[in-house]
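Lecture notes, unit on binding sites. The following record was shown on slide 14. It pairs a sequence with iron/sulfur cluster.
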Amino acid sequence: MRQIKGRVFSGARPTGRQHLGNYLGAIKNYVALQDEYDCVYCIVDLHALTTVETTENLRQNTYEMTLDWLAAGIRPDESIVFIQSQVPQVAELHLFLSMVTPLGKLTDLPTFKEKVRQQPHNVNYGLVGYPVLMAADIILYKANAVPVGIDQAPHIEFTREAVRSFNYRYHTNVLIEPEIKVTEYPNIIGIDGQRKMSKSLSNDIEIAATPEETKARVMQMVTDPHRIRRSDPGNPDVCNVFSMHKIFSSPEEIAMVNVECRRAGIGCVECKQLYARNLNQSLEPLRARRTELDRHPDDVWDILRDGKNRAQAIAANTIEEVKEAIKLPLEK
Ligand code: SF4
């Protein structure tokens, strides 16, 4: 039986088909957390609106991401999986929280300044309020903990401050300060061997790719740059293929590559073929579940609808408590 420690909230933008970086860095953790927490997993489409150039693929991307989450092992009968914009109370709470958030605090945030640098042509109001919306997401569902990498911890600290400001202003304790659950996320480097795996950098490997596509992407992976010829000894410590072997290959294979690479006993082609085979084997059950789920798209949308209903029930309750705490006039 599950020993539930509390509620976890996490959100991710609808980026479509997920890649290995998403899978190893977030989704696997989402799946594992279900054993200890009530989990609320949100597809944050409203957040995406602050930066996307076009919304043309928003629905399809939401669907594809949901498929990957479910296929990876998120259990919708236990966890709440839903789309942010379908629970309008988040916009209400965002507004209430904005009243207790100093503007300077938002414009001073390094993440805001970075966005201004990235898209000077589109410094919209939503970008300024981004952390407030994020705080509203977490607070609305009364999450006790939020799993984040250490670099994201300031955002959760911002949420905690928003809770304290609100509770102080309205002499209440209705909102809950979430704990920061710092999680070790493996840094998955893309096939370019240099930058973090990212769809926008086209250096990714999709988890739902076919075995052939996967192998083709693996064969493009950059290896030890000093190993030019097959006869050159390599250094697995600087090779991204070896990093991935450590995740997907057996201890014997990892040991073999570690030794044979250094004395040119194995070539990069052979080494990549081995990794591609192991990667495909490891992802095979996920891909089979995904194909099955994809046969019934209506069922996937039903899961999201059910998630929305369950999320809304929590959200409606929180908003009622919030309005009561603020002493907004109630309907007679
Ligand atoms: S043999 Fe394998 S670990 Fe060594 S450089 Fe080539 S791909 Fe990397």
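Take-home: Residues 223-224, 227, 234, 236, 239, 241-242, 257, 261, 266, 268, 271-272 surround iron/sulfur cluster (CB under 6 Å).
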